[in-house]
Amino acid sequence: MKRTILLMGGLMLPPEIAELEKQFEVIKLYREPDPEVVLQDRRLDIQGICSLYSRPVTKSLIDSLPNLEIISQFGVGVDNIDLSAAKSRGVSVTNTPDILTDDTADTAMCLLLAVSRRVCEGDMFVRVGKWQSGPLPLGRALKNKVVGIVGLGRIGQAIARRCAAFDMTVVYHGPRAKPDLPYKYFSDLAAMARHADYLILACPGGEDTQGIVTADVLDALGRDGFLINISRGSVVDEPALVQALIEKRIAGAGLDVFQNEPHVPQELISMDNVVMLPHIGSATVETRTVMGRLVIANLMAHFAGKPLITPVAA
Ligand code: 8YV
Predict the structure, then answer these.
(1) Is residue 124 pLDDT above 90, yes or no?
(2) pLDDT tens column, 54-82
(3) Cα of 249 to ligand 1 centre, how many Å?
(4) Is 232 one of the annotated active-site residues of the chain?
């Protein structure tokens, strides 16, 4: 008999969903008109969850599923999962690290270039015929600028390599210095922001980084500074960011993530110096394909009694 898996969201590509359905009985929670009723009816059957960043896996969900054994996250960030609740219930958690590093770093570079060189503004300028009346205002060069990366993990390091290739000087902030890496470390985020022209957020979400980009950090970044966020909306005090942009206390922002996705602050919509993406860090066919395969491979390994491929440390 097939084991039952709860699929929380629909980002996995059709071939991987088909494969998941070949191996397991799949409850597509996101398709259910009344998810609570399904969760109640099927609570004893569910042995695995396929989760993703936009769907919280809370202590109450974990506790309501007595036969839950594994949560296989479609993504690297696991801040949507109550890890201590999973641990205390003995539920394993896996994620999809490494395979989305390059795409996510590329997304940061897209935003960095787009806000600096006015790419989206320029595109609109051509489309609406403004070019005939004069040139687009000048952008800002990346070369010789200082980029401060918050979180020099896998994705942060991939961004650092790309920025170095653009002749930028890389510095970083995080919980600890990484002496093996050739970049200057700042233990104080505001001090790094003061020193940097660009602040790129690449740290994990969750309690430790909640709201660390405050109004003070944005003021330290300053009138000529740009904020790029490909991490989590929760890392930034979003109302403070909106205010800093309105008052032109920072030069602009490139944002792939927001506090309340898919909703974005209304004030940002009309701002030329803000480029927004709908959380597409890993959103390529290639990467989403291997992410889906890894989600399934972790489930298969678990139920076959084999070691998990990419366990999240409890
Ligand atoms: C993914 C992400 O697209 O991996 C993550 O943590 O935020 C994104 O890059 C997302 O997880 C897909 O579910």
Answers:
(1) yes
(2) 999 999 999 999 999 999 999 999 999 99
(3) 30
(4) yes
How many other C-beta atoms lie within 10 A of the C-beta of residue 142?
Answer: 18
pLDDT, tens digit, 9 for 90 and up, residues 255-274: 999 999 999 999 999 999 99
Question: Of 55, 118, 162, 279, which residue is the catalytic one?
Answer: 279
pTM comes to 0.97
Q: Do 106 and 211 belong to one domain?
A: yes
Check if 205 has its Cβ closer than 6 Å to any atom of ligand 1: no
Best CA proximity match to 168, nearest among 200, 143, 198: 143
261 is catalytic: yes
- The CATH code of the domain that includes 52 is 3.40.50.720
Q: Give the pairing type, strands 198-201 and 46-51.
A: unpaired
> Is residue 104 within 6 Å of ligand 1 at its C-beta?
yes
Q: Is the CB of 108 under 6 A from ligand 1?
A: no
Residue whose CA lies nearest to ligand 1 atom number 13: 52
296 and 159 housed in the same domain:
no
Evaluate: CB of 312 within 6 angstroms of ligand 1: no
How many domains would you assign to the chain? 2
- Atom 6, ligand 1: residue with shortest CA distance: 77
Give the distance, in angstroms, between the CA of residue 182 and the centroid of all CA atoms in the same chain: 25
Shared-domain flag, residues 256 and 159? yes
CA–CA distances in Å: residue 253 to residues 67, 89, 186, 198: 45, 41, 22, 9
136-179: per-residue pLDDT in tens?
Answer: 999 999 999 999 999 999 999 999 999 999 999 999 999 999 99
- Domain span at residue 250 reads 101-276
